[in-house]
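Typical record is below.
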Amino acid sequence: MSLHVPIETMAALPSLSRPSTAMDYSTDSLRFHLPKPNYLPHIPDFDEPGIVKEYVRPLDRASDENYAKYYAKCRRTAEETGITRPRGYKVSFHCNPEMEKHHFGNAHPMKPWRLTLSKSLIYSYGMSFAMDTYVSRAATYEELAMFHASDYLDYLATVPPEAEPRDVDGSAGELIFNLGGSDCPLFEGLFNYCSMSAGTSLDAAKKVCAGQSDIAIAWGGGLHHAKKSEASGFCYINDIVVAILQLLRCFPRVLYIDIDVHHGDGVEEAFFSSDRVMTVSLHKYEPTNFFPGTGALDDNGPKSDLNPGAHHTINVPLQDGITDGQYEFLFNDVIGRCVEKFRPSVIALQCGADSLAGDRLGRFNLQVQGHGACVAFCKRTGIPMVLFGGGGYTPRNVARAWTYETSIAINCQDRISPVIPPHTPWRSQFRQESLFPTLEEVLGDPRMNKNTDKRLREIVQHVTEQLRFVEAAPSVQFQVIPPNLGPIRDEVEERLWEERQERDEDLRRERETAVGTEGEM
């Protein structure tokens, strides 16, 4: 978009090099202010309306007419395929469209646009009619400080963006809080992005705590590498830890499961000494060549049995090329034993999609069906659950996996078409029309499988031995409960939400049509 400034208007502007008044050295003038996105000198006394051309509608956004047509197609798809709200439990979907607009950099593997692609595919199948959909607010500073150190948050909120990573020429120097390098660059709107990501996860956890949802989905979360005072592995704020702290206010025991291709080191470290959280991570383990290099089979928490967190850390290290069958066997066996012994009150499942075949960073042979089988197994336990996103650096694979797993959550995986709906936005980005492309279509030749059946049995045996030391269904007293920071805010938000619903005539008509609700026979 070009900006047109009339010559006569420019002539009326005072010279920027000429001081107009005496300098103001007040305290406010010396306070640090974040740069504002102004692309022309802004002088209120001289600027007049009409300098910048105004457009009738924002660029790159569909018109209301096109949106209405798309909505009608999604609704028709839901009706034709019989997608309805599940019986006996409630599912909620939490997102913040504003976080999708951020950009880590051209060469960076993390693409927030994958959330746009995922959400569009989920909506195109008509799944939104079977869930309660929420646009989550950004997490507040106080909520992030439930886990993160204040000096780290202060720096994260005020550090200016940088056009290029500091280590682009091989000489990074010292990185403060590990920020500014190639892994964790300083991009425009960084703190807002982090706050919105954490907000979706925290909102999902609150809905489960309040009994308003049995399965809450937050694909914008799942950034499991961030530490208390350090960014790591594309992760700046550990939204999972913040969400689990919220869950611990209402549930005595949380089972955290991580199926990202990378070890869930940040969450494991946060609850290392707690017997109220059991962490289970299935990941590729190659300590010298694959990030983060932690999560060996014998890393099972504190070495001293006097520490409450001893034996509450389960790591399942894997090698390249594991298949759907092997992964499902291992997951069902290990998680089944953990559920039986630990008796969790709620499950937090991180569904990183970089464990899929064809990912830019992952090296497994998992397909969408095998990845989704993990969600299906956890759902069959009947335990309340929060589903987080996570890694995933081939956006079309991410969208397929999270769409299929959303269908599992609402119990319509057998009803949706294996062919991606023709009205799906950016449909050409998926390359293949199928929701379930074969390994040959994704990879050409599958990767060599380095996981022997003998090794998998050894892993199960080791996990079984560790669980022997875990107190069966421990009676956990609520001695240390994280402070409840937002009851007043939640009450106000709920009241405002109810008022908006009462005024929304379109919403009332939509509910009367009862799309997504099974009719009585």
